[in-house]
From TrEMBL, chain A:
Domain of life, per lineage: Eukaryota
Organism encoding this protein: Furnarius figulus
Family annotation (InterPro entries): AAA+_ATPase (IPR003593), Mrp-like_CS (IPR000808), Mrp/NBP35_ATP-bd (IPR019591), NUBP1/Nbp35 (IPR028601), P-loop_NTPase (IPR027417), YlxH/NBP35 (IPR033756)
Name under which the protein is recorded: NUBP1 factor
Entry's localization field: Cytoplasm; Nucleus
PANTHER family assigned to the protein according to its UniProt record, in alphabetical order: CYTOSOLIC FE-S CLUSTER ASSEMBLY FACTOR NUBP1, NUCLEOTIDE-BINDING PROTEIN NBP35 YEAST -RELATED
Stated role: Component of the cytosolic iron-sulfur (Fe/S) protein assembly (CIA) machinery. Required for maturation of extramitochondrial Fe-S proteins. The NUBP1-NUBP2 heterotetramer forms a Fe-S scaffold complex, mediating the de novo assembly of an Fe-S cluster and its transfer to target apoproteins. Implicated in the regulation of centrosome duplication. Negatively regulates cilium formation and structure.
Pfam families given in the database record: ParA
Gene that this polypeptide is encoded by: Nubp1
One Gene Ontology MF term: ATP binding
GO biological process, alphabetically ordered: iron-sulfur cluster assembly
SMART domains with a match to the protein in the record: AAA
UniProt keyword terms in alphabetical order: 4Fe-4S, ATP-binding, Cytoplasm, Iron, Iron-sulfur, Metal-binding, Nucleotide-binding
Domain AAA+ ATPase, chain residue ranges per copy: 59-230
From TrEMBL, chain B:
GO MF annotation list: 4 iron, 4 sulfur cluster binding; ATP binding; ATP-dependent FeS chaperone activity; metal ion binding
Swiss-Prot/TrEMBL keywords: 4Fe-4S, ATP-binding, Iron, Iron-sulfur, Metal-binding, Nucleotide-binding
Gene3D superfamilies noted in UniProt: P-loop containing nucleotide triphosphate hydrolases
Originating organism: Furnarius figulus
Classification via InterPro entries: Mrp-like_CS, Mrp/NBP35_ATP-bd, P-loop_NTPase, YlxH/NBP35
Entry GO terms, CC: cytosol
Biological process according to GO: iron-sulfur cluster assembly
Name of protein: NUBP2 factor
Coiled-coil spans in chain: none
CDD domains (alphabetical): Mrp_NBP35
Length: 323, 155
């Protein structure tokens, strides 16, 4: 299989758009088999209609992605949710599809909360009146319970999150994802194709080991035709509160996100410096933006959030013009 | 292919970005420094970090009669490494695979790599408790699984 990853398509390739894509006998061992099969296994028309109906009242959807783990996706998703919900006229929903490592309940101060069922479906757990959250974390009897599920079961839950949660009318649906380019990512893109996704925000840290995985995620976005709103570089420098000297804790040995974005012609939404208060706020379930309003990191977050809002609003008005 | 391996160690964490791959690499180098024969099996299929950490990201794997030949690192070829990183045509290629395809490759990585005689085989895993982890443990069940090292950060 050493040559498989880069091999040409098999001789009897059914065609990547065919209903047999990924499923024909000739597909076995083809490097694109997984991608073709995944595409062919999208929601069936009845399911797609169901999802479309449920998500009809969602104005904007933003996916928060990274190839790399531990770069601050959930931290950023939480900050984005709080930032958008600061406008009380906006209804914000935060959906956590990291099934194995759901961080959002703790970060939003909602650990121990349970999901309630009503006639109209599952109720999200509300942090504020205008900020609702859903996560597998709310379905566990203990926060230490491991969710040891293979792909298909994870996909099933993600579908339920979209189909069975009574989100109501939402201005912004933010989806926090686990690291990687696998089941969860393919599924959320497929299920949300029933509605629309404004784009993805990709999170990284400055070092090449992160960028390496993030470039893969960017390629994933291109493959599934997911627009990229831009890249956020977390843990970008540390300013000592005592001596004010700046240190690069994770040195950008290959130019950091800035160079990568230049090379790939993608927008760098902003750089967020390391602030120990961020980790503390996450552990305590508090909004970092509220706890440390004067922090340079807060300023960065707010600028980035504004850029994301502008992107979504511009897309919306462009689409309205096209109708 | 694993019969010549004396001990197998899994490096795990629920959480991403805590330093699993870093610890795997440092552990392998330290054990090698002590004179042991060491291998690293990188089953992080979506985000393989070990090749770059050992500066062998431009190498390729070859086949032999017993399966794949791992990449040997360093002048003394002291560490044997297998990673999906070596199978990608381009380093930025995304491995966009669902569980079943990941499981199939992990099984191949366990049974079809000609490790030879090793004192330690260190297995680097991705974050989570899903396909890769279940498949790796299942595939290694009959071998000398020493145990798991769990990596975390303080928060």
């Amino acid at each position: 299989m050493a040559e498989a990853a880069g091999a040409a398509r098999p001789e009897e390739c059914p065609g990547t758009d065919s209903a047999q894509a990924g499923r024909a006998a000739a597909c076995q061992g083809c490097p694109n088999q997984g991608l073709c099969a995944a595409g062919a296994a999208g929601p069936d028309p009845a399911e797609a209609a169901e999802l479309r109906a449920r998500l009809r009242a969602v104005r904007h959807t933003v996916l928060v992605l990274s190839g790399k783990g531990g770069v601050g996706k959930s931290t950023f998703s939480a900050a984005l949710a709080h930032g958008l919900a600061a406008d009380e006229d906006k209804q914000v929903a935060l959906l956590d599809i990291d099934i194995c490592g759901p961080s959002i309940p703790k970060m939003m101060g909602l650990e121990g909360e349970q999901v309630h069922q009503s006639g109209s479906g599952w109720s999200p757990v509300y942090v504020e009146e205008n900020l609702g959250v859903m996560s597998v974390g709310f379905l566990l009897s203990s926060p230490d319970d491991a969710v040891i599920w293979r792909g298909p079961k994870k996909n099933g839950l993600i579908k339920q999150f979209l189909r069975d949660v009574d989100w109501g009318e939402i201005d912004y649906l933010i989806v926090d994802t686990p690291p990687g380019t696998s089941d969860e990512h393919l599924s959320i893109v497929q299920y949300l194709s029933a509605t629309h996704i404004d784009g993805a925000v990709i999170v990284t840290t400055p070092q090449e080991i992160s960028l390496q995985d993030v470039r893969k995620e960017i390629n994933f976005c291109h493959k599934v035709k997911l627009p990229i709103i831009g890249v956020v570089e977390n843990m970008s420098g540390f300013v000592c509160p005592k001596c004010k000297k700046e240190s690069q804790i994770f040195p950008p040995t290959t130019g950091g996100a800035e160079k990568m974005c230049q090379n790939l012609n993608i927008s760098l939404l902003g750089k967020v410096p390391l602030d120990p208060q961020i980790g503390k706020s996450c552990d305590r379930g508090q909004s970092f933006l509220s706890e440390a309003p004067e922090s340079p990191a807060t300023l960065s977050y707010r600028n980035i959030i504004q850029r994301i809002q502008e992107y979504c609003e511009q897309r919306h008005s462009r689409e309205e013009k096209n109708i | 292919n694993l019969l010549g391996v004396r001990h197998i160690l899994l490096v795990l964490s629920g959480k991403g970005g805590v330093g699993k791959s870093t610890i795997c690499t440092e552990l392998a180098l330290a054990l090698r420094h002590c004179g042991h024969r060491v291998g690293i099996l990188d089953v992080d299929l979506c985000g393989p970090s070990i090749p770059r950490m050992l500066r062998v990201q431009d190498r390729a794997v070859h086949q032999c009669d017993s399966g794949w030949v791992p990449v040997f690192v360093g002048q003394d070829r002291g560490i044997a490494l297998m990673s999906i990183g070596f199978l990608l045509e381009r380093p930025d290629d995304a491995v966009v695979w669902r569980g079943p395809k990941k499981n199939a490759l992990i099984k191949q990585f366990v049974t079809d790599v000609a490790w030879g005689d090793l004192d330690f085989l260190i297995v680097d895993t991705p974050p989570g408790t899903s396909d890769e982890h279940i498949s790796t443990v299942e595939a290694l069940r009959h071998y000398k699984l020493l145990g798991a090292i769990l990596v975390t950060t303080p928060q």
